[in-house]
TrEMBL record:
UniProt KW rRNA processing keyword: yes
Domain of life: Eukaryota
Gene3D superfamilies (alphabetical): 1.10.8.480, Vaccinia Virus protein VP39
Domain Ribosomal RNA adenine methylase transferase N-terminal: 1-128
Record protein name field: rRNA adenine N(6)-methyltransferase
Gene Ontology terms for molecular function: RNA binding; rRNA (adenine-N6,N6-)-dimethyltransferase activity
Keywords, sorted A to Z: Methyltransferase, RNA-binding, rRNA processing, S-adenosyl-L-methionine, Transferase
UniProt-listed SMART domains: rADc
The organism's taxonomic lineage, starting at the top: Eukaryota, Fungi, Dikarya, Basidiomycota, Agaricomycotina
Protein residues bound to S-adenosyl-L-methionine: 1, 28, 43
Organism of provenance: Gymnopus androsaceus JB14
Pfam families assigned to the protein according to its UniProt record, in alphabetical order: RrnaAD (PF00398)
């Protein structure tokens, strides 16, 4: 937050017709109560890049379009595709809820003083209506699948603590939905069967697109296994 910049902006429009069209809010964008808007243009503070974009995608009603400048590497991760080096949990999470296009590179010499990093501008168009998928569930699956993106999905699910966490979630779901809880449940076998049935036993996160992740999430949900 920079109250000096806010004061300078108000000074420039004072007494002009544009003053009536400007509503200036000084605060933390990620935490502030936002008014209605359908367009967002931001030279983003790079340390809040991820919280900012997910705040925009969770805002209701959804904005029509967002033109955002980020650190170059972050922007490339937003638009990355499966089977590329930068495809990640961030890429999948954002592309589930929005169409993201790379617009332009902005060199550091365009700023005074020049920062240490390069920048890029992207266009984010939220999918409206958004897909009927809880972000916490999709992100929870992504945390496991992308924990080691070049390892097999099976290997990531067999990592220490993952099966135990899924069993706790499954038992919670059974209790909340009045399902019978098996005394001798073999959660490891349940997980492996789901991965096998969906063709993901030997698959790798680096090759899985958003549709692949959604199908896998749906298969786990059908078995009462949740990630949040």
């Amino acid at each position: 937050m920079d109250p000096r910049m806010a004061a300078e902006l108000m000074k420039r429009v004072q007494g002009k017709p544009s003053q009536k069209k400007l509503s200036l809010i000084i605060g933390d964008f990620v935490k502030a109560k936002l008014p209605y808007f359908d367009v967002c243009i931001s030279n983003t503070p790079y340390q809040i890049s991820s919280p900012l974009i997910f705040r925009l995608l969770s805002h209701r009603p959804l904005p029509r379009i967002c033109i955002l400048m980020f650190q170059h590497e972050f922007a490339l991760r937003l638009v990355a595709k499966p089977n590329t080096a930068l495809w990640s949990r961030l890429s999948a999470n954002v592309q589930l809820y929005a169409k993201v296009d790379y617009l332009m590179h902005v060199g550091k010499n365009n700023f005074r003083p020049a920062p240490k990093v390069e920048s890029s501008v992207v266009r984010v168009i939220p999918r409206d209506p958004p897909p009927p998928v809880r972000f916490e569930e999709f992100d929870g699956l992504g945390r496991i699948v992308f924990s080691r993106r070049n390892k097999t999905v099976h290997g990531n699910f067999m990592a220490k603590g993952v099966v135990e966490m899924l069993e706790r979630n499954w038992r919670t779901w059974c209790s909340e939905t009045n399902q019978i809880i098996e005394d001798d449940v073999n959660m490891k076998a349940k997980v492996e069967k789901i991965l096998d049935d969906t063709g993901n036993l030997e698959n790798r996160a680096a090759k899985m697109d958003v549709d692949d992740l959604l199908k896998l999430l749906s298969a786990f949900h059908d078995a009462g296994i949740h990630f949040a």
